[in-house]
Each structure stands twice: as C-alpha cells, then as structure tokens.
Amino acid sequence: MQHATRLRGSRWAARGLCCVLAALSALWRPGAACPAACTCAGFRLSCADPERSLTAFPALTEPEMENVTDIYIANQSSFTSINDRDLAFYRNLRNLTVTSTRLTYVSRDAFQNNLKLQYLNLKDNNLSSLSWRVFRHLNISYLMLSGNPLQCSCENMWMKQGRGEEAEAELLCVEEGGKRRSLSTLNLPQCVVPTVILTSQKVSLLEGSNLTVTCKASGTPTPDLKWNISQLVSKYKIVTSGQSSVLSIFHLSSLDNEFKVICSAENIAGESEATLQLDVRFPPTISKLMDAIPDHHWCIPFSVSGNPQPKLSWLCSGKPVEEGEYISTRIHDYSEHEYHGCLQLDSPTHVNNGRYTLQAENVYGKDSKSIFAHFMHDPWNDTTATDPSYYDDTPLGPPQDRVAVYVVVGIAAVTFAGFVLMLVVLKFGRNSKFGIKGFVLFHNVPVEAVGR
C-alpha cells in the first residue's frame, strides 16, 4: 500500500515538473529559433560573436520577439543598417545596444513600433548622420552616439541638445577637411531650428462663434508648416502662404471645448510647435438621468455638460431638496466634456419617495430632467405591504421554486438533528449499561439466542 502511495506521489511530482518546464519553454525556447551567433537567455538577446557575424536583427518567432526587452549586438562586421521592419515585432524592447559594428544607416521608421524604448546605445559605429525624426515619437532617456564619424552638418545639429540624459564624453563631429571639433560649439549660418508663433495661446468664445488663428514660423532651411487638428469637430479652412498659415474655424462646437490646436514647423535641423487651447462656452445639457440604484448608498446617476461648470440643484415632488449629511450631490468623474455623478441618499425611507428633478444652470442657460424614485413602501398608507421594506422590482420566483427551497431547508434540519443525536450517543454511551458497548455485544449474539 505504501509502495503504491509513493509511486502515485512520484507520478504527480513528475507531472508538476513537466508543467513547470513547459511554462518556462513557452516563455523562451532558445534552441528553437536563437541564431548560432547569439545567446538567448530570459528576456535578453545577445549577439557578440565576431566569428559568426550577423547582417540584421535575428528573426525569431513573433511571440519570442515580443518577450524580448534587451538586445545587445557587438563586434558584427556585416551589420550595416537598421531598416523599417527589423524591429517591428520587438514591441516590448526597452534597451538596445548596437556597438562596434559597421552600422551606417538608421531608417526614420526603424523604431516605429518600439514605443517602450528608453535606452539606445549606438557608440563606435559608422554613422555619419542621424535624423531627429527617428526619435520624434519616443521618450528616450539615454542616447549614446560617441565614437561615430558624425559630420558637422545641419542634419546633426539637433544632437547639441536632444540626447536626453546622456552622460558620456563630449560629442565630436568631423569637418570637411577631416578635423574633429566639438558639436556643442558648432554654428552653421544656413542651419537654424524653426520657431513658431501663434496669434494667441487661449481663446474663450461662445458656442457657434467663428475663430481665426494665424501661425508664423521662421528657420533655415525654410520650414514646413503643419496644423495638427485632425480631431477637430467644427468645420475649418487652412490657407498657407510662405512661412505664414491662417486657420479659420466656423461655428465652434461645444465638443471642441478644451481642444488643443497645434501648429508645428520642421526642417532638417529640427522642429518646434505652438499650442492654442479652445475654451468654448455653452449652456448646460443633462444627457443622462437614470433610475435610482441601491449600492452602499442609494444613487440617482446623472451626466451633465456645460461651460462654465453648471450649478446643480434638485427638486423632490416640486419642493427643493435640502442637501446635507444624508442627501448630497457627488461628482465622481469628468470625461468626454461631461460631469458624471449621482444624488446620494443614505438610508432613504418612504418620505423620500417622489419625482426627482435635476436642474443645471450657468450664465448661458439652464436645463432640467426628472425621474421617479421609490425607495420604501409607506407603512401607513400602503395596504398591500405587510412590513416596510426597500423597493425591489425583482419578481419573485414561481411557487414550486419556493416549495423546493422549503424541502431543502427541511432536509438540512433533519440531517443536522441526526448529527447532534449521534454526538450525544457517542458522548454518553460509554458509561451507560445500554450504550455503545451493549449495542456492539448485542450484534454479536447469535440469532438463536435472541429467539430464546
């Protein structure tokens, strides 16, 4: 018996070990796709063997690439570029090092899918230039570029102040004659980062008004002007001439309240932008007023919009609701330009039953909506109720369901009583003449003896 138990236990232990190994292999299977020139351990991919040079990033299976957070590539003489799709499936990549290779080109869309990238080390490669547009959508904290033959060109001017929290030796660039100089002191007369100016930074207008905004830019080479207003609800028109652009917005919508109008300018040296925030004033609108719902407290939910924020008040059956410790208006959230909250009632009684009217008002207008709320039966006038109870519109189950409940409860009670009786017999039967011992002896007496 013990041998069988030990055998069964060993089988369960073996199965558990297999499950753990399967889970670990699901996270990373180095033998399945890891290249011979690399080592794959945990969430790190390292390729530093100079004898087996890579020409591109390893193409693992898609799930494996999504698990990788760190890539280290070094001493690869055939590694020359980072192209558009090379890192497309390394979506969780945080740290990337490509050093001591012949890297000469980085595509503008190389890190398009690597939004979590924070550390980028491209030291000691063959880069002569690197556009700022490669990193425009990233929030990189550390960018290492020293040891590259960077040209003293306009395309590299952004590196003077755009390398995050990099703590390395001073970055050098190569002039036409081959002389090296500090990039931080480089000044090129035909290379100026753009500046942008808007006619105003914030406007307050009534809903339905028209608005005209002018954006002016300067920089060398001549920058390209763009408006970032794709999410604007109101109708608009743009007229651009040279380094000046005029945006005309017609019939301002309340849905554009707090919208940020962005004008940006960019050239090879860098980019800059200016922002205008819209403050659209409009009267209140109650978009939602729902039936009272019981929770920790009773709540009558509502959603209200309006700018400035509307003042809210309540009526119950035509009379003002006095708010205090037990009845109060609570705003829980502000989203999508609406205030979401509820009228909270703590332990309401039949006195609080009635038609509730929400009134919202600001300087531009007002709105109101009503809902009927029933919290408790009236114990004095409601002849249909046997006792006061909170209102519940959930229908009762059919009669047979209630009978079944009674049967189950009865069976449980009988079982419990039998269990208690058994405990009593076991407790006191040992000292009784007709207790358990007598009962056992009685069963050992032959049937013939009992017949006598």
Automatic annotation (TrEMBL):
CC annotations in GO: plasma membrane
GO molecular function: ATP binding; transmembrane receptor protein tyrosine kinase activity
GO biological process: cell surface receptor protein tyrosine kinase signaling pathway
Signal sequence bounds: 1-33
Record bears the keyword Transmembrane: yes
SUPFAM superfamilies reported for this sequence: Immunoglobulin, L domain-like
UniProt keyword terms in alphabetical order: Disulfide bond, Glycoprotein, Membrane, Signal, Transmembrane, Transmembrane helix
Stored Gene3D superfamilies: Immunoglobulins, Ribonuclease Inhibitor
Residue ranges of every copy of the Ig-like domain listed in the record: 194-281
Transmembrane stretches, start-end: 403-426
Pfam families: I-set (PF07679), LRR_8 (PF13855)
SMART domains noted in UniProt: IG
Designated name of the protein: Neurotrophic receptor tyrosine kinase 2
Organism: Astyanax mexicanus (Blind cave fish)
